[in-house]
Design goal:
With 649 residues, this protein is mainly α. Helices cover 65% and strands 4% of the residues.
């Protein structure tokens, strides 16, 4: 066996160093990808010591991008993409234009040609879907509305960059800078003996993308699920795993060669088509280990391109580049999302998602340098901006989480017209309690009041008294709210999901929009005059913060919580919860009640018929188990004795 094995040494060196520095980064509470990037810098050509193969590393990284985008497609169906098109499509287009304008302005100030400045601006305008997906997965936001808008936004960016990758060579050839024309455009021009301009190139590019989508929707939609179903029925796990990888890589490669679209985009649509199959979850699980491994190599390859000396030789241009990526793009995205009347958490999530650049930026930089449009300095600045922004992206998410309570805490009151009956029901008052002679509010005055907490003169605290406060309107909270509403108990809800907020408003229920762990949000709930607090959110850490703050405000407040383990029950009880209910335990009590119908009650009835006098039967094992619950647990149905029997001791 030959000793010169660059492929093996590149894979081993990249993964081993990524593991070491990823573990170190995790130890210091930093994202592991920071360690992956640092590992790439160490094996790159700009630092002393071992240097990984410069040609193999990017190709290995491309496999990681393909598999990761395939996974994105598995979790993001066509229906989801269309559902966010109203925000993602126009928002991404406006944001790309604004960021490109900023980059073009910086390039012009540095004396670069027009073409190079535009390439530089485009490279700064597109974010990395790989980095975004990692961040969303760590925060469990992929399946949320915010996550789907963020992924959809970046998919639109990727589509725009596909168009840019075709247009840039054409524009360079028109400008006389260089010529790397599209072979399809050449064939069309030769066939019809015409000169294709910019409009012609754009038209051909759109036709190619539409042709690929048509093939995937008409043929791939039937063939891909059918192939996997046939393999799954064979019972071979190895063949199924191999089939999934073959589809992901094969469709991506075929899309690039036959239709001229990017490998990542081809893999994304392959996963999106497969997501409609019932085998999509299994496919995602089977590809996860290999997907993670090659995603690590992607970050290592990015680190290899970075020359740390540029930070010392050109500090001001580097800072300007980072400013455009972190501040310029983020502010533009934040204002755009708010313009579409989305919530503050959604706007901040999109802003943090776009505060970095990635794989498409590297491709554009290499293309610009190859076409003699972008100077070497521009490529180095793009790489420096990418490394720094990727490392700081977790910080942007952290700052966004800190800003949410200050920016979003606001009270939405139900309209005094439509919600009058609902409010009257909640407070126990009647609609004829109005003061005689008082004017009826006009429709304009009955609109929901939107107030921002924390600003002087604009803090709006709930007017309810002796009320209940429900934190969270999920599966548990919605049941609690329904019962409070039917019983006429005055209450309000604290919720941060825009869909749930809209649902509550339609019911005429008073809502505080925000994270209940924020003191600004809890202040609006008027806990000092409340009688009870129901913390229905599953996150024990956030629930603990809510309980602790609520107990400080109102020591006499009845606080009820939910938990998933005994440790969470102990944690919440120490912080001040009066009663914490664990769902699994209540399920067990319900099952014991069902078993008592067969085992316990049958024995009791037989003894009652045979015995001359009713006597208390010996408790069965089932009842003993039920009776051993903690004192703060609700009485289980199995504790209720049959009517014909006396109460047990």
């Amino acid at each position: 066996m030959p000793h010169d094995t660059p492929l093996i040494s590149t894979i081993v060196g990249g993964l081993v160093l990524a593991f070491i520095f990823g573990a170190i980064a995790n130890r210091f509470r930093l994202p592991p990808l920071v360690g992956y990037l640092f590992a790439g810098i160490l094996v790159g050509p700009h630092t002393p010591g071992y240097v990984a193969d410069q040609s193999l590393a990017p190709e290995l990284a491309e496999i990681g991008v393909i598999l990761l985008m395939f996974g994105v497609g598995l979790h993001f169906s066509l229906k989801d993409l269309l559902s966010v098109r109203g925000v993602a499509v126009p928002g991404a287009i406006v944001q790309i234009g604004f960021a490109t304008l900023l980059g073009w302005g910086m390039g012009a100030l540095m004396g670069w040609p027009l073409g190079g400045s535009l390439v530089f601006g485009l490279a700064l305008s597109v974010a990395s879907t790989v980095v975004l997906l990692k961040a969303l997965q760590e925060r469990r936001l992929v399946e949320t509305v915010r996550g789907k808008i963020a992924v959809g936004w970046l998919i639109v960016e990727d589509l725009a960059m596909v168009l840019a990758l075709v247009l840039i060579p054409a524009l360079a050839s028109i400008g006389g800078e260089a010529a790397h024309p599209d072979p399809v455009a050449i064939a069309v021009a030769d066939l019809f003996d015409i000169e294709l301009g910019v409009a012609g190139v754009i038209g051909i590019t759109l036709l190619k993308v539409m042709a690929f989508l048509g093939v995937m929707l008409v043929i791939g939609r039937r063939v891909i699920p059918w192939i996997l179903h046939r393999i799954a029925h064979s019972g071979s796990r190895e063949l199924f795993r191999l089939g999934v990888l073959a589809i992901a890589l094969g469709v991506a490669f075929g899309a690039a060669k036959l239709f001229g679209v990017s490998l990542a985009l081809g893999a994304f649509f392959a996963g999106m088509i497969l997501s409609e199959s019932e085998l999509s979850h299994r496919a995602a699980q089977e590809t996860l280990p290999l997907r993670d491994a090659f995603a690590v190599l992607f970050f290592v390859s990015v680190g290899m391109l970075f020359d740390p000396n540029i930070i010392l030789s050109n500090p001001l241009p580097v800072l300007a580049t980072v400013f455009i990526i972190l501040i310029g793009k983020s502010m533009a995205a934040f204002l755009i999302v708010l313009a579409f009347r989305m919530t503050v958490p959604t706007a901040l999530t999109i802003s943090a998602s776009l505060a970095q650049i990635g794989e498409f930026s590297f491709i554009l930089a290499e293309l610009g340098v190859g076409l003699n449009l972008l100077p070497q300095e521009g490529r180095d600045l793009i790489l420096a901006g990418a490394i720094i922004s990727i490392m700081l992206n977790p910080v942007m998410f952290y700052l966004g989480d800190k800003l949410i309570p200050r920016l979003e805490a606001r009270l939405i009151r139900a309209p005094e017209g439509e919600g009058e009956a609902a409010i009257a029901t909640q407070t126990g008052a009647h609609s004829d309690d109005a003061v005689p002679g008082q004017e009826t509010p006009t429709p304009k005055e009955t609109e929901p009041v939107l107030t921002t907490a924390g600003e002087e003169g604009e803090v709006a605290v709930s007017r309810l008294m002796d009320h209940a406060v429900v934190v969270g309107y999920g599966r548990v909270g919605s049941i609690v709210v329904a019962n409070l509403k039917s019983s006429g108990t005055p209450f309000l809800v604290i919720e941060d999901s825009e869909n749930r907020v809209q649902d509550l408003l339609k019911q005429g229920i008073e809502v505080i929009v925000g994270n209940a762990a924020s003191p600004k949000v809890l202040e609006l709930a008027n806990l000092g005059t409340a009688k009870s607090l129901v913390v229905a959110i599953p996150n024990a850490f956030e629930a603990g913060n809510v309980v602790m703050q609520a107990r400080e405000v109102n020591p006499a407040l009845l606080i009820l919580c939910r938990a998933n383990s005994d440790a969470e029950i102990e944690h919440l009880t120490k912080l001040g919860a009066d009663k914490t209910i664990m769902g699994e335990r209540e399920i067990a009590y319900g099952m014991l009640d069902g078993l008592d119908q067969v085992h316990y009650r049958a024995d009791v009835l037989e003894e009652a018929e045979e015995a001359p006098k009713p006597q208390a039967p010996e408790p069965t094992g089932l009842t003993e188990v039920a009776s051993e619950r903690p004192h703060d647990e609700p009485a289980a149905p199995s504790d209720v004795e049959p009517p014909a029997e006396p109460t047990k001791a």
